Amino acid sequence: EAQVTQNPRYLITVTGKKLTVTCSQNMNHEYMSWYRQDPGLGLRQIYYSMNVEVTDKGDVPEGYKVSRKEKRNFPLILESPSPNQTSLYFCASSGGILTGELFFGEGSRLTVL
Amino acid sequence: AQKVTQAQTEISVVEKEDVTLDCVYETRDTTYYLFWYKQPPSGELVFLIRRNSFDEQNEISGRYSWNFQKSTSSFNFTITASQVVDSAVYFCALSGWAGANSKLTFGKGITLSVRP
User: Fold this and answer.
1) Which residues in B lie closer than 8 A to residue A88 (C-beta atoms)?
2) What is the mean pLDDT of chain A?
């Protein structure tokens, strides 16, 4: 089954404790991206990747890192999480932004205390 | 910079009413793509449609229709004879066609409530 898998789905952590949210897709997609969803702000892009070893900043990259060492994986790293990073995070992939549908993971709800 | 504005934040209708969700975009690209996504209460994001800037034909899919007008930079979404299952948050989104413009920008979303 074609899917984008994120882990963990739910996480409560404390300020400053490094964490990684993993994202994996099994569709051989080149394009992958991370978004955060906050009430009243919609979905905002954090980082995106057009292919292996190619990443670019989205609209709200501060406080986040990503890497794309393999085509299927695109982890989101919070080196020193802060409470303003409490949010719902979505990973997504596409055969290319030109091909249309963006496949989303189920979301990861992160709370930073 | 590209921008998507969904001026309506919440809409409430009674079942069987028609409802139109507005989307206005800004971009300096001549080639771009517009999307609509649905987020039901369960939280997943569901792709509804993609439209490229060269194709201004309106599209109909069952009870859903989309009206793309480049002259007004709008890509509106109409649900005919709404149903309770249409209750969701609807996002309009815009992307460029290549390079740095490939990032996808979403509007803030419209919460649609359909009452029985």
Assistant:
1) 43
2) 92
